[in-house]
């Protein structure tokens, strides 16, 4: 993997990706943040050596380098999931690339379903902890110790100072921002009523199919990390209706301006 990482980083250096400070991963239906970035360079994933390619129709496939709020940022417009057939090492490969390019902070967004029925669709949830239900770890491969400490500490995977800043920004901008625990599952099928009940019992406030692998690798690389979910549907097992994916994407788009405000204002402070 070290050889692959070097090839990828050398390619991006040649393309003008110069010492970004902050990495951003944009989740399902959350692409409007790009409008607030002064883009210096963008490269399609399928042109980047050793990079996976996004296969989900509502995920773009570009790595973008530019400035936002006076900071150099590198942005994944579209992410990878294990339900697309990728390994956890593939899914998290871009985080390793962003760290080698120079980032010190990783900010992640996603769309998720609300398990906590006090949370409503269209609202945001700041992730304060997570539960990994994806069946493996992105650190479970031979040679991982050459890239960072094998037994990565996960006692505080989400940066407390950044989370505190997010809460202050939300309050100052009248944005409802819940805090909660995010459970990451494999997908791509959505959950059964019994699975929603189980998730509630084990302490999850929201459920999705991403984010946790990237956060694990960010901690492995000693990056500061934070993540925010757009709650796109309410997962009430006693009143469960069939889920319309188009409606989920529309809900993510409707909530997106609030997410953009949080990220933009936060980046000014980093």
TrEMBL record:
Listed InterPro entries: Nucleoside_phosphorylase_d (IPR000845), Nucleoside_phosphorylase_sf (IPR035994), Purine_phosphorylase (IPR011268)
Keywords from the named record: Glycosyltransferase, Transferase
GO biological process: nucleoside metabolic process
Annotated GO MF terms: purine-nucleoside phosphorylase activity
Record carries keyword Glycosyltransferase: yes
Domain Nucleoside phosphorylase: 22-268
Pathway membership, UniProt: Purine metabolism; purine nucleoside salvage
Pfam families according to UniProt: PNP_UDP_1
Family under the similarity heading: Belongs to the PNP/MTAP phosphorylase family.
Name the UniProt record assigns to this protein: Purine nucleoside phosphorylase
Species the sequence originates in: Algibacter luteus
């Amino acid at each position: 993997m070290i050889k692959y990482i070097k090839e990828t980083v050398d390619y991006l250096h040649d393309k003008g990706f110069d010492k970004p400070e902050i990495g951003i991963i944009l989740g399902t239906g959350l692409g409007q943040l790009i409008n607030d970035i002064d883009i210096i360079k963008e490269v399609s994933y399928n042109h980047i050596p050793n990079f996976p390619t996004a296969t989900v129709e509502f995920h773009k496939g570009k790595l973008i380098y530019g400035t936002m709020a006076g900071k150099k940022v590198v942005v994944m417009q579209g992410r990878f999931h294990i339900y697309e057939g990728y390994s956890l090492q593939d899914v998290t490969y871009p985080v390793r690339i962003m760290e080698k390019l120079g980032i010190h902070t990783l900010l992640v967004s996603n769309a998720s379903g609300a398990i906590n029925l006090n949370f409503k669709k269209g609202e945001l949830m700041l992730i304060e902890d997570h539960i990994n239900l994806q069946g493996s770890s992105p650190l479970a491969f031979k040679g991982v110790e050459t890239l960072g400490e094998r037994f990565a500490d996960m006692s505080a995977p989400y940066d407390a100072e950044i989370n505190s800043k997010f809460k202050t920004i939300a309050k100052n901008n009248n944005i409802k921002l819940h805090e909660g625990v995010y459970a990451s599952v494999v997908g791509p099928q959505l959950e059964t009523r019994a699975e929603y009940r189980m998730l509630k019992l084990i302490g999850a406030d929201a459920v999705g199919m991403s984010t946790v692998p990237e956060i694990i690798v960010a901690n492995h690389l000693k990056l500061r990390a934070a993540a925010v979910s757009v709650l796109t549907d309410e997962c009430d097992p006693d009143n469960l209706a069939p889920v319309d994916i188009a409606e989920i994407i529309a809900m993510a788009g409707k909530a997106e301006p609030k997410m953009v405000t949080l990220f933009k204002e936060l980046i000014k402070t980093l």
